[in-house]
Amino acid sequence: MTGPITAGVDGTEESLAALDWAAREAVRRGRPLRVVHAWQYQPDAAPDVAGREAQEQWVRDAAEAAVRGVADRHQGLEVTTDVVEGPAVETLLGAAADAELLALGSRGHGPLVGFLLGSVGQQVIAETTRPVVLVRAGDEASGEAAGREIVVGQHGDPEDSADVLRFAFETAAARGATVRAVRAWTLPPVFAYSPASLKLLDDAGGLEPYERTALSDAVQPWRDRFPDVPVVEHVEIGSAGQVLLSVAGRAQLMVVGRRARRTAVGARIGSVAHGVLHHAGCPVAVVPHS
């Protein structure tokens, strides 16, 4: 997809960090930047912004001030601003549908706690069909310095993680960064073995060589497509979330996949994406599987 890089803003420090991140990414990818601010009329607001027109003007002024700062820092960047009256989740889902990716702010309480994902961000991530990048206040361009990697989680067969790997390699190519492709594995219970699976493992020479081959097979098409992107293939025993977080210190961006599941209280993201979002110390991209 060749849509704009879109940032959702609401005037908070976190959303302004997401806007700065999105602007840098738009410059790197040669894409326009779209800034979306969703708002709803608050009849019990302070007297100086009690009316609908006054509230809308206040929102527009705040959005335009943020955009002016970005435009000053990135001369020549094409920027559009949309101030939309309506629920935040629905507005952001609509904006994401036409975007290359959507950047959102996420509250963070230090490097150990990581992200605190609000209800709006969680719903957008669970329901959108486009990549969403969560950025904390304080995440700056210095975190994208040379030597920092794009860390991406891979699982299953090559087609299972094609969308996630594509996003990681495209991002690395735009930044001149290395991709670290991570595949975690665990010992299966004895009753999970079958004659067919035992033969596959025997042919591969054991469990870990089997996992290394599976990762190489998944990554190879993207190595071929992006020959200038350096790649590190990382296979480690452990839970996927724990293994990814163990290498998060190397990352300028963490990329994980997402398969949302429906529950009685709405859509929920998987445990790996949830854990990484809450504990990684860098921006996290959540890419829906096709």
TrEMBL record:
Superkingdom as given in the UniProt entry: Bacteria
Gene3D superfamilies: HUPs (3.40.50.620)
Pfam families, per database record: Usp
Every UspA domain range: 1-136, 150-288
Family per record: Belongs to the universal stress protein A family.
Protein known as: Universal stress protein
Native source organism of the sequence: Streptomyces thermocoprophilus
